[in-house]
UniProtKB/TrEMBL annotation:
Keywords: Membrane, Transmembrane, Transmembrane helix. This is Divergent PAP2 family protein. The chain crosses the membrane at residues 132-150. It comes from the Bacteria.
Length: 163
């Protein structure tokens, strides 16, 4: 794999890991399982695509096809993370609360009704806009640092002609 892929994957892992202490600071609740869940601050989706886009911009330049492709793909991912996936999470909250209401109704009925209890749907799917921005800023920072660390610092060799 190339360095851009390694940096993007590192960025995703770091963003996922940062969710645990950030959640602890906000809620005073230690939840290591957040590492394996979607949603929360910072967005690992945004961090990953921002790292890759920044690395490509610094390594290959802004007028390249690689950068254009990465930028457009990254914008779509970030839009999806804060838009569509967040709306899905909010809809899931409503569905889960309806399930609670249905259970209350069934308990008040005198008829026997047997139903398999459905699994509770996952409610934290998407991101708030500030979580996307936080992930994007983390990604840009890692992209810059990654580029600087992988930059070839060798001095050009001087060629001398010997006769």
């Amino acid at each position: 794999m190339n360095k851009g892929v390694y940096l993007a994957l590192f960025s995703i892992g770091l963003a996922q890991g940062l969710k645990i202490p950030i959640h602890y600071v906000k809620k005073k609740e230690w939840r290591p399982e957040l590492f394996f869940q979607t949603g929360g601050m910072p967005s690992s989706h945004s961090a990953g695509v921002s790292t890759l886009t920044t690395y490509i911009a610094l390594k290959r330049g802004l007028p390249t096809f690689d950068f254009a492709l990465s930028l457009v793909y990254g914008l779509i991912v970030m839009y999806d993370a804060q838009g569509i996936r967040r709306q899905t999470g909010e809809l899931t909250l409503k569905v889960n609360s309806m399930n609670d209401l249905i259970e209350k109704i069934h308990k008040e009925e005198s008829l026997e009704f047997k139903q398999n209890t459905p699994k509770r749907l996952k409610e934290m799917l998407g991101h708030q806009p500030e979580e996307v921005v936080g992930g994007a800023l983390l990604g840009v920072l890692i992209g810059i640092v990654g580029h600087l660390c992988t930059k070839n610092h060798r001095k050009p060799k001087k060629f001398t002609l010997r006769f």
